[in-house]
Write a structure and sequence with these properties.
Shape: elongated
Number of domains: 2
Largest sheet: 4 strands, antiparallel
Strand order of the largest sheet: 2-3-1-4
Number of helices: 7
Strand content: 15-25%
Helix content: 40-55%
Structural class: alpha+beta
Distance between the termini: 75 Å
Radius of gyration: 24 Å
């Protein structure tokens, strides 16, 4: 039977930094997601994520403090922090939680656009306005963030030259959303259902 012998140098300068790097990716990614959940009003999962985040951080910082002369450990700690931040943002973009408001300003009649959006389950409101070059119509809708790409494609289909802006919405009291898309979101739809909604006054 052959025994695998790992030298202390390999443990100190290779294995330990890799473990610190991976731990930092995990805890910073969790921290990024926790902050995003709080900002989105998902208050029930945020404390649970925070629990695991701080446990992993304690393990990582403990190893760094036990190896204060190991420069590689410092580099791994910093690299893990940077990588964890990036990965956390990628995860947040992937799950696309929360609500988004879309404002469309156009000089043309938005009737067909509004009818098409409503036929796909989106709630739409329009008002008259005055722009820099004359009278305009503003179309306003609040949608699931995961539906933003679909709505933008509809806008470009009917009004390719229209001005539109997108803003984050923290909470709503009521709304009209496409049922089919909400059901098809799977686990992400379940997470989004944990949002804290304020009732309208």
């Amino acid at each position: 039977m052959v025994e695998l012998i790992i030298s202390p140098e390999i443990v100190t300068y290779v294995i330990l930094p890799i473990m610190i790097f991976c731990a930092r990716i995990c805890d910073v990614s969790l921290g990024t997601i926790r902050v995003i959940f709080i900002s989105k009003g998902i208050r029930y999962l945020a404390p649970l994520i925070g629990f695991f985040e701080v446990i992993i951080w304690l393990l990582a910082i403990g190893q760094v403090m036990n190896n204060l002369t190991n420069i590689i450990a410092y580099i791994a700690y910093g690299a893990g922090f940077a990588s964890g931040t990036f990965i956390g943002m990628l995860i947040e973009e992937k799950i696309s939680l929360g609500l988004t408001s879309v404002r469309i300003i156009t000089k043309k009649d938005p009737g067909e656009l509004m009818q098409y959006l409503r036929s796909h389950g989106y709630g739409v409101t329009s008002i008259d306005g005055e722009g820099a070059t004359g009278r305009v119509k503003m179309v306003y809708t609040i949608i699931k963030r995961q539906d933003l790409g679909h709505v933008v494609s509809i806008i470009k289909q009917f009004h390719p030259n229209a001005f539109y802006s997108v803003d984050e919405v923290k909470s709503v009291s009521e709304g009209v959303f496409p049922e089919k898309r909400m059901q098809g979101a799977g686990v992400f739809s379940w997470i989004d259902s944990l949002r804290f909604y304020r009732k309208g006054k």
